[in-house]
Amino acid sequence: MLVYDGDCGFCTSSVRFIERYVPARAEIVAFQYADLGELGTTAERAEHEVLWIDRAGRVSGGAEAVGRLLTAAGGPWRALGVVMRVAPASWAAQAAYRLIARNRHRLPGGTAACALPPAGRPGGHG
């Protein structure tokens, strides 16, 4: 399962790209609609990074989560996902993920609401 921030326009645009182009065999859900306690995580974590929860209930976040999603998709995506999770590429992937996460409100599909704390976003989740 991939868990993302459904209040963030950039995150939602990214998920739509995944749904269209990445043959992910996974449920994709906004954290605002997920039972995070049952999934073994918290809203605080889900507000700050995309999460991947595998069938065994292990939770990965950030670039690791994206790498695991791509690995699970198979085909050429699998190779990219594996590379993203092995050092030193994993270090670069995590640095890129953090840079993107901090600036998601400035990226295509992002809105000013993406930069606000969750309680201050339109819709008031948090």
UniProtKB/TrEMBL annotation:
Q: Which Pfam families match?
A: DCC1-like (PF04134)
Q: Which domain of life is it from?
A: Bacteria
InterPro entries attached to this UniProt entry = DCC1-like
A GO molecular function for this record? Answer: protein-disulfide reductase activity
What is the name attached to this protein's record? Putative DCC family thiol-disulfide oxidoreductase YuxK
